[in-house]
Specification:
The complex is a heterodimer of chains A (about 325) and B (about 450). With about 325 residues, chain A is mainly α. Chain A is built from 14 helices and no strands. Helix content of chain A is about 60%, strand content about 0%. Classes of the chains: A mainly alpha (about 325), B alpha/beta (about 450). The structure holds iron/sulfur cluster (2 copies).
Chain lengths: ~325, ~450
């Protein structure tokens, strides 16, 4: 019995895991959903509009830039959806929609596609966009909506982060320093009842997202832990070992959103364990320094972007030696 | 699956890094090995092993019998080839290997009698050299899939101080169950093979390493060890079932904690690794003198009607083997010689199976589909899976731009093409192909 049919021939292996790029991106989207739901509760239906517009713009921008560049279509991998959601999460709910759309186009076309598309951009598109928006529209990017008003009403009060900065600058910190200040309680901070960007405020929702990503093995805990851990150590020391101060710092600004969803972006973070530790610690240290000594409102975006730029170097330094390579030191010792 | 380590069985000394958890598909595990009907015709390629090809020593019209040498060479790294049927040589000339490579070969038409060659008698072994020579004459090559002539491995110089013989029964490739069957059905030969190697090669310690998803194999070997009064320097060991546990360097590390440096062999760290079926063959050969003329193989896959473990005369055509297993139940899209991780897709079923061939797997459409290749997202899964600590995604990039210096620095040549990286890649990258490309880039550069 000879088969006349053409058999397909390909290189080994002939079996593959079920992971696909699309499935991974879908998992990230799913992990962002709790934060989106929390945002709707906190800031009202406008959050949905901002998110939808942002996602839509990113997807369309991805689609057309691939066509214009005559490259194979990648819109189906859902990475543009992730970018769109993250950009929405990084702006205040009251942000004018055209500004959001401008940011989306910038992220997809300039930061991502001009460098070759998925896997090739060297900084995180959503963060680059956040920085671009802060530079272009500083006031709009700092007009926070008050939670549970559900109107596009802007809070006049300073963000919690600015308030803690004042406390830090006003001298020695004790639990009394926090009394009578215009700060939400720590529980409110945890639940997200505070001023901030759309998706960064609700710590518990972000942590649920993290647990999902870990359970699905989309990311490892290495970078978030190294980031938040190193940040916490510095803040704990700087705050004179005051736990309240530390807790406010961890829960305010975009630290958790950044550590969980942006610093772990595959494309712009190192692949190896050692590299991930260096990267995470670098993010933590820079964020802490900016928050303690800098004049910028928030350090997370800058810290991650700076470390993004260093990734090729980190990678170079931490490339593992192939299996069985004997360490030079040991060779010397053996000779002696 | 939870697994309780039987008493007296060792735990792996050091678990290897990386690897992948493949689905095992050991569907044929409980099927005893059955003998295939003698084939009417066999084709014996002169290159069934790594090393120098043999030259035919018979000519058209010669009458040969089972076990008679039909191809040999005086090169050291090679192994003679014996007829697996009795009958008449009908052709000597170019034949296809399963890979599509053309080599010299001998075609023999069987007379159906399977007459044994008169010259077959148990080898007389008095020295270590006799032992190695006998193994060479048996035609044995690594039966685990690599096909490296066994006697070359055994002929290590004394100053290598080999102190541990590792018997590899990991069988980490999905589907394949012949090594497992060997443990159950042939435990006596395994033990006698081991004892002979210990005796003639003066290797004090033996570790028989089996993945922990095969509890019955432990039991069979433990029972027989008791019967044979095996000394307690022969130990059983469980290994985690993770692919590629059975790769030589992985094996050495799991069993002894020693790491084989890049470009070195297990012998350089005092180990000899041998596949369990090869060990069993040595046991039987030293008793009977019957050379390697047949072997067990697993026939399975979604397109095969009756999956089986079969004992097949070397040189039988793949189509005949499949026919013996009921033929196809669905139109096959892809047929593999070997396992799904490292096996090779054959272009036709009209090719002979060879000594190193431990499985034939046929898959229907849908089970053979590849993922569409997309851009790398730098997820790191390939690097995490690589047991050799390589960074396949970077290697791909360096290979494409021809960066030889970086390829060397990253250590491309330790890649054993196990396929763990490509298996785990969500972007469907044919990384093994890129690893081969990288190696050829480095090779070309070295020539200049
Ligand atoms: S790079 Fe080579 S050794 Fe590493 S996983 Fe891929 S095929 Fe295996
Ligand atoms: S597994 Fe595939 S997608 Fe992930 S880093 Fe490696 S090559 Fe890139």
């Amino acid at each position: 019995m000879i088969l006349d049919k053409k058999l397909s021939v390909s290189a080994s292996p002939h079996d593959h895991s079920k992971d696909t790029v699309t499935r991974i991106m879908l998992d990230v989207v799913i992990a962002l959903v709790p934060s989106l739901i929390a945002a709707v509760f906190l800031f009202g239906p406008q959050t949905l509009i901002v998110s939808a517009v942002s996602v839509g713009t990113c997807v369309v921008a991805e689609y057309f830039s691939r066509i214009v560049m005559k490259r194979h279509q990648t819109v189906g991998d859902l990475s543009a959806v992730v970018t769109g959601l993250l950009i929405a999460f990084n702006v205040p709910t009251s942000m004018p929609l055209w500004m959001v759309m401008l940011g989306d186009v910038f992220a997809i076309v300039v930061v991502k596609q001009m460098f070759g598309g998925i896997g090739m951009n060297f900084v995180n598109p959503a963060l680059a966009t956040r920085i671009m928006l802060i530079a272009s529209f500083p006031t709009k990017m700092a007009e926070w909506n008050a939670p549970f008003t559900w109107k596009n009403e802007v809070m006049t009060t300073a963000s919690p982060l600015a308030e803690i900065k004042n406390i830090y600058r006003s001298g020695a910190i004790s639990n009394a320093s926090f009394e009578g200040k215009d700060l939400p309680s720590l529980l409110d901070m945890f639940l997200g009842k505070r001023a901030g960007s759309l998706g960064e405020v609700c710590a518990i929702a972000l942590i649920i997202g993290l647990i999902y990503l870990l359970a699905r093995k989309v990311i490892k805990i290495t970078i978030p832990l190294a980031y938040v851990g190193s940040f916490a150590v510095i803040m704990f020391i700087a705050g004179g070992f005051n736990l309240t101060f530390l807790a406010y710092h961890i829960l305010s600004g975009g630290l958790l959103l950044g550590a969980i969803f942006m610093a772990t972006d595959y494309t712009t973070s190192p692949i190896n364990f050692k590299g991930q530790i260096i990267f995470g610690v670098g993010c933590g240290v820079i964020t802490a320094l900016i928050r303690l000594f800098g004049n910028l409102p928030e350090g997370v975006s800058f810290a991650i972007i700076l470390m993004n730029i260093l990734v090729p170097h980190i990678e170079h330094l931490t490339t593992p030696k192939p299996f069985g390579t004997v360490k030079e030191k040991k060779v010397k010792e053996a000779k002696e | 699956m939870s697994f309780k380590r039987p008493e007296g069985v060792l735990k792996a000394v050091k678990q290897v890094r990386g690897g992948v958890h493949v689905s095992h598909h050991k569907n044929t595990a409980e099927l005893p090995v059955v003998r295939i009907n003698p084939p009417q015709k066999i084709v014996l390629p002169m290159q069934q092993h790594i090393g120098a090809p043999c030259e035919p020593v018979v000519k058209v019209g010669d009458i040969v019998s089972v076990g008679q040498v039909v191809g040999d060479t005086d090169k050291f790294v090679s192994a003679p080839i014996h007829s697996s049927v009795s009958g008449k040589v009908v052709a000597v000339g170019d034949v296809n290997l399963p890979s599509g490579v053309v080599t010299k070969g001998v075609t023999i038409e069987s007379d159906g009698e399977m007459r044994q060659y008169e010259g077959i008698k148990p080898p007389v072994v008095e020295t270590r050299e006799d032992f190695v020579k006998a193994v060479r004459e048996s035609g044995l090559v690594g039966l685990g899939g690599a096909g490296f002539p066994t006697h070359v491995k055994l002929a290590f110089p004394k100053e290598k101080n080999i102190d541990t013989l590792v018997i590899n029964a990991a069988e980490c490739e999905p589907y394949i169950t012949v090594d497992y069957r060997e443990c159950l059905e042939n435990s006596k030969n395994i033990i006698s093979g081991i004892q002979l190697m210990q005796k003639w090669l003066e290797i004090p310690n033996v570790i028989i390493a089996i993945e922990d998803n095969k509890p019955q194999a432990f039991k069979a070997l433990q029972d027989i060890a008791g019967e044979f009064k095996v000394k307690d320097n022969v130990k059983l060991m469980t290994l985690k079932s993770v692919y590629p546990q059975g790769a030589e360097k992985m094996m050495v590390q799991s069993a002894t904690g020693r790491r084989v440096p890049p470009g070195k062999l297990p012998a350089d760290v005092g180990c000899l690794v041998m596949n369990v079926a090869s060990a069993a063959f040595i046991g039987r050969y030293m008793r009977t003198g019957r050379p390697l003329v047949s072997r067990s193989m697993t026939v399975d896959g979604s397109a095969i009607k009756e999956p089986k473990n079969v004992r097949v005369p070397i040189g039988t055509s793949i189509s005949e083997i499949i026919e013996f297993c009921g033929g196809f139940k669905e139109e096959p899209e892809k047929i593999l010689s070997g396992g799904p991780m490292m096996g090779m897709a054959v272009f036709s079923t009209d090719v002979p199976m060879i000594k190193s061939n431990n499985a034939i797997l046929a898959f229907a459409k849908g089970d053979a589909e590849l993922k569409k290749e997309r851009d790398c997202i730098r997820c790191g899964r390939c690097a995490q899976a690589c047991p050799m600590s390589l960074m396949p995604t970077l290697i791909e990039r360096y290979a494409k731009i021809g960066d030889v210096e970086r390829l060397n620095k990253i250590g491309i040549n330790v890649c054993m093409e196990c396929g763990s990286c490509a298996y785990s890649c969500p972007a469907g990258k044919p990384l093994v192909q890129y690893m081969r490309l990288a190696k050829s880039v480095v090779r070309e550069a070295a020539k200049k």
